[in-house]
Amino acid sequence: MHWWADGGVEGYMVSRRDPKTGRHMCLEKNTCAVQNTDVLFATDSYRLTAQGREWLRKFFSSAGAFAYAVYGHTDSRASDEYNIRLSQNRAKAVAGVARQSGAVVDRVVGFGERRPIAPNNSAANMQKNRRVEIVCYRYPSP
């Protein structure tokens, strides 16, 4: 799979061709789920809660994508090194449930505190930053 841009169309390419046109098919890639890690994990842990594991099983069995990427994020309360490791381990835990559910996981990355969606200046904003993002790879609709 690789990135391709041609004639105003860009996306991930696979070694498949449209049977009608013979052209390579671009894939649609979008963030299909963002789950707060407070729901999935205990504080300061990468062990999934029973509730989090069940939510993930249901999600991966119904999302309808052919592959996924999983990105872990934290707030800024601990050191950068610690947060990278925690977010990576959380992303791996989510990817593990995906694979157990029969899903293909293409990418697993922990970003730590490096990609916040809100300033880490309040408890509410820090909670927004503690998240796991799941990206779905799908074939375009005809």
From TrEMBL:
<feature type="domain" description="OmpA-like">
    <location>
        <begin position="28"/>
        <end position="140"/>
    </location>
</feature>
<dbReference type="GO" id="GO:0016020">
    <property type="term" value="C:membrane"/>
</dbReference>
<dbReference type="InterPro" id="IPR036737">
    <property type="entry name" value="OmpA-like_sf"/>
</dbReference>
<keyword id="KW-0472">Membrane</keyword>
<dbReference type="InterPro" id="IPR006665">
    <property type="entry name" value="OmpA-like"/>
</dbReference>
<dbReference type="InterPro" id="IPR050330">
    <property type="entry name" value="Bact_OuterMem_StrucFunc"/>
</dbReference>
<dbReference type="Pfam" id="PF00691">
    <property type="entry name" value="OmpA"/>
</dbReference>
<protein>
    <submittedName>
        <fullName>OmpA family protein</fullName>
    </submittedName>
</protein>
